[in-house]
Amino acid sequence: MKIIDTLSLSTRMFKIRPLRTLLTILGVSVGIGTVLFLVSLGYGLQNVILSKIATTDSLLTLDVISDESGLIKINKESIDRISKLQDIEDISSIISLPAQISMGEFTGDGAVKAVDPSYFRLGGINTDYGNNFRSDENYEAVISTANAMLFNMTPKEIIGQELVLTIFLPKINEKGNEIIKSVKREQKYKIVGVIEDENMSYVYIPLGTIGDLNIDNYDQLKVKVTNNEAIKGVRNEIIKEGFLVASLSDTIDQANKIFKIIQIVLALFGLVALLVSAIGMFNTMTIALLEKINEIGIMRSIGVTRGDISKLFLFESIIMGFLGGVGGVIIGYLAGKITNTGLNILARNFGGQPLDIFYNPLWFIAVIMVFSTLIGLLTGVYPSIKAARLNPLEALRYK
């Protein structure tokens, strides 16, 4: 029997039993769609979260801090030594100090973070409103949304406003005791950007604007290396200097491992629905076998081989599995779009930002199509073998 004839006979199911066939395909589509929906949710959440914390520069950046004893401090001398290491591309420092932040009649406590302009790029820190400052000398500030709430203003309204900072500096007096000295900055800082963070009140300012305070020690360094291969070597060299070193790439690796587990768990939930659909498809193929026993007897009596009979059932199940995969991809994609749209509408109503929390990798769509077709093939194996083994005379007498 020619392939074209086998395909023609296999697709008769759409004419003879159209409703049953479509319902079977729909069942497979729902199972495949559920798997695609849940797994694409896992991939989407992974992309959203990692895109918020990782940039190309930040993945090549090491965070350097002093050890807990504080005996080895980060100062200009240690920065000079680190900068002379091989494969170092850029270094950015930060000084974090407690402060009072004032605007008009409002005053609140917070943290002042004096940083080099490159700190934002190396740390993967982006403003949600406005821009980062790009000069080390201009009196500009980037604040958190917690600060905007403190001054009873929205992030958009507060951009362009000016802050007055009173910084508290730790000092050692003549007796060797540590005291806190307050220094009010006469120059006001113009707000140029806002970072989405409602939990902590802080202000980023250019490091150069507090150069007159003669602060010798830094709280942290961000050290960017030239490439991924250099990260391990540079880290070891900095550790030899007595500092603690962390890398965002380590965090990303751990996060990816966690998300892989989440995706597997979500896929298992979807596979339960797919298993139910596969059972329904197997039931349909078994009933189709019983309905076609007489036809099988006639075909066998006119010379159709056992192999051709087997192909008829295999082709029929493969076609249903493939069409179920196509329908599942459509259902999963549309369900993700509808859900994402609904969540974004809620986010806008509550003042949040719209996000795409569903992501469908093309390779996964291809895999799920192959998987669906394979399920169709497997559910057709038993009926095809059973049909091929039927005795032609008994098949003709079957009622």
Task: Give a quick rundown of the structure.
This is ABC3 transporter permease protein domain-containing protein. The protein is of the alpha+beta class and 399 residues long.
β-sheet strand percentage? 15-25%
Question: What is the alpha-carbon Rg in Å?
Answer: 33 Å
Sequence of secondary-structure elements: HHHHEHEEHEEHHEEEEEHEHHHHH
The portion of residues assigned to helices is: 40-55%
Main sheet summary: 6 strands, mixed, barrel
Low-confidence stretches: none
How large is the count of helical segments? Answer: 14
Q: What structural category characterises the helix and strand content? A: alpha+beta
Mean pLDDT metric: 82
How do the strands line up in the largest sheet?
Answer: 2-3-9-5-8-6
SS elements, strand count? 11
Shape from CA axes?
elongated
Q: How many structural domains does the protein architecture include?
A: 2
> Could you give the distance between the termini?
26 Å
Membrane topology: Multi-pass membrane protein
Domain MacB-like periplasmic core: 21-239
Domain ABC3 transporter permease C-terminal: 268-392
Transmembrane segments: 21-45, 264-291, 312-335, 362-382
Q: In words, what does this structure look like?
A:
It is found in: Cell membrane. This protein has 14 helices and eleven strands. It has 399 residues and is of the alpha+beta class. It has two domains: 196 residues, no CATH class; 176 residues, no CATH class. Strands 2-3-9-5-8-6 form a six-stranded mixed β-barrel. β2 and β3 form a beta hairpin. The radius of gyration is 33 Å and the shape is elongated.
